[in-house]
Write a structure and sequence with these properties.
Structural class: alpha/beta
Radius of gyration: 16 Å
Number of strands: 9
Helix content: 25-40%
Strand order of the largest sheet: 5-4-1-6-8-7-9
Low-confidence stretches: 1-5, 205-212
Mean pLDDT: 90
Strand content: 15-25%
Largest sheet: 7 strands, mixed
Order of helices and strands: HEEEHEHEHEHEEHHE
Oligomer: single chain
Shape: globular
């Protein structure tokens, strides 16, 4: 088997999709519609197109509704009952769900960043080497998502992931081991957090820079 085939088997995709959209009137972010589909479907498709054959999706706010409305066939759906504690709890739940699967790394994306498409995710995935890999996309040199955590980092990431900070503290503490992959030429790293941000969501006919 050639080296180029290994990441598809060893790296699992992990979508953090539990957010409740507090500044969006309590609308679960996973179900916001982008190009005719819920954001969570878009996020899963991006990771699959990048090369992840296994994708886990962490659900929280409106989890039951997301299961009914979104087409997530083939995904492992992970419930995070503590989603209100912040993104850190979803990251912990997602990494825990990968234990025992044989995955040696997790490519983590956020459901509310539709401007980041498969090309950016594939670049980060291509930097995977082994379970010690630690890789993140960068936008004009600034660290962003997706982030790839080799399995050797999972325990440390989980221990430091609190509130809405996710893995930021861990990544800062391990900057020397972190590989940044520039993706600013193929993706836009905006978040859908507020009513104003909804302007980034487009109808099915409009082009999306994140699809490049």
């Amino acid at each position: 088997m050639t080296r180029t085939h290994l990441p598809r088997q060893e790296v699992a995709g992990l979508v953090l999709a539990a957010g409740g959209g507090r500044r969006l009137g309590g609308r679960p972010k996973a179900l916001l519609v982008h190009r005719g589909r819920p954001l969570v479907e878009h996020a899963v498709e991006v990771l699959r197109a990048a090369g992840c054959t296994r994708v886990h999706v962490v659900l929280g706010a409106g989890g039951g509704t997301v299961r009914r409305r979104a087409r997530l066939e083939g995904c492992v759906l992970v419930d995070n009952p503590g989603w209100e504690q912040g993104m850190g709890s979803s990251l912990r739940a997602g990494l825990d769900s990968l234990s025992g699967t044989g995955a040696r790394a997790a490519l983590v994306s956020l459901v509310d960043q539709p401007g980041i498409g498969a090309e950016a995710a594939a670049r980060v995935l291509a930097a995977y080497r082994d379970a010690s890999s630690l890789v993140a996309a960068a936008y004009d040199g600034v660290r962003g998502h997706p982030v790839l955590f080799g399995a050797a980092h999972w325990a440390g990431v989980a221990a430091s992931a609190t509130g809405d900070r996710g893995a930021r503290a861990y990544l800062r503490a391990h900057q020397d081991a972190l590989t940044l992959v520039e993706c600013g030429d193929v993706a836009q790293a905006y978040d859908i957090d507020t009513e104003e941000d909804l302007r980034h969501l487009v109808n099915p006919a409009a082009p999306n820079p994140g699809d490049r």
